[in-house]
Amino acid sequence: MSYLYEVPGLNAWAIMLFVILTLIAFNEFGRTTKWGGILLFLIVPIILTIFVWPKTAAPDNEYGTGTWFNWVKTYSALAGCLGFMAIRFIPALAKRKWVLVFPAAILAINILEACFRDFQVYSFGLWEGGYVDNLWVMSGSWNIMNGIAGLLNIVTICGWTGIVISEDKSKDMIWPDMIWVWIIAYDLWNFAYTYNCISDHSFYAGFALLISCTIPAFFIKKGAWLQHRASTLALWIMFVMTIPQFADKIAPVPTTHNPQAFFSVSLIALIANLALFVYQGLRIVRLKKHPLKDEIYKDTKTYQNVLAENV
Question: Quick check: is 5 in a domain?
Fold first, then answer.
């Protein structure tokens, strides 16, 4: 850990664990109750938008939460949550295949936003590091590598036509074709993105946040990774927009600002997503699948188990 971050104290580890458990708990509250989701992702954001964020996320504030990217990321995450709820709880929507483009599209747009930011950080030319919008970043080849990794991650989004709604009380949006290999590749890419672009916030916004959606996807409600991801991301961003000093003053865990660390995490992300791209491409050719229309992993045990547990 000392390779990536200044060694966190016990307090930081305890806070990180609390963040993870809190995000998982609120995600479950919003997932298992319709009114919980409406409260968390519609009513609370409206109140915060009117009364809180204009002050705590004002342009040029000292914590970097007032950037266009932060605001866009906040509302795109919330749009995802509300859109997924509409698909889950309005039966007529889930039956229309064209509506199922929305989850894939909002996911791709969110990844593309981050890819753009990686390329933008490279364009700053801060080869020795520096502050942009009050956030420390360091430009380098890692930005290009990870931007490419993100684009590969977008290209490998597949099987959206097979999205179904679970038959249990929670009515989760299940995407069986989004199996663990894609999720891990995404996690590696997204961690590298946070490490590159919000470096000193990445311990929480990258590491902890990704764990908080990956654990539910693997152990609580399988097949609903995108739903978990959108909810935990929205919850985290709302928290950061409301208490922007959290990662800088309350519980800071800065990176080592080591160019080798930047290079390593982005190289791993690129290799993982390139491997996924090749593996998926070979499956498409071997099984004669259409990459935009067909479910690529329908014959796998992982896919079949997810479907059996939910439908």
Answer: no
pLDDT of residue 223: 97
Q: Which residues contact 124 (CB under 8 A, 6 or more apart)?
A: 130, 132, 137, 139
Which amino acid, 236?
W
Domain-located, residue 269 = yes
295 by Cβ neighbours in 10 Å (0-12 / 13-18 / 19+) ranks as buried
| Strand partners for 131 | 136
Copy the structure tokens of residue 296. 């690529």
Residue 149 to residue 140: CA distance in whole angstroms? 15
Sign of CA dihedral 159, 160, 165, 170: positive
pLDDT exceeds 90 at position 68: no
Q: Domain range spanning residue 208?
A: 10-310
How many other C-beta atoms are found inside a 10 Å radius of the C-beta of residue 42? 14
- Count how many domains the chain has: 1
Query: Quick check: is 4 in a domain?
Result: no
Tell me if residue 255 falls in helix, strand or coil. strand
What's the mean pLDDT in 2-26?
92
Q: Residue 47: what pLDDT?
A: 98
Among 130, 95, 311, smallest CA distance to 224 is for 311
Identity of residue 177? D
pLDDT per residue as tens digits for the range 77-136: 999 999 999 999 999 998 888 999 999 999 999 999 999 999 999 999 999 999 998 899
Q: Is residue 116 part of a domain?
A: yes
Q: Which of 219, 200, 193, 202 minimizes the C-alpha distance to 306?
A: 219
Length of the chain: 311
179-191 tens-digit pLDDT: 999 999 999 999 9
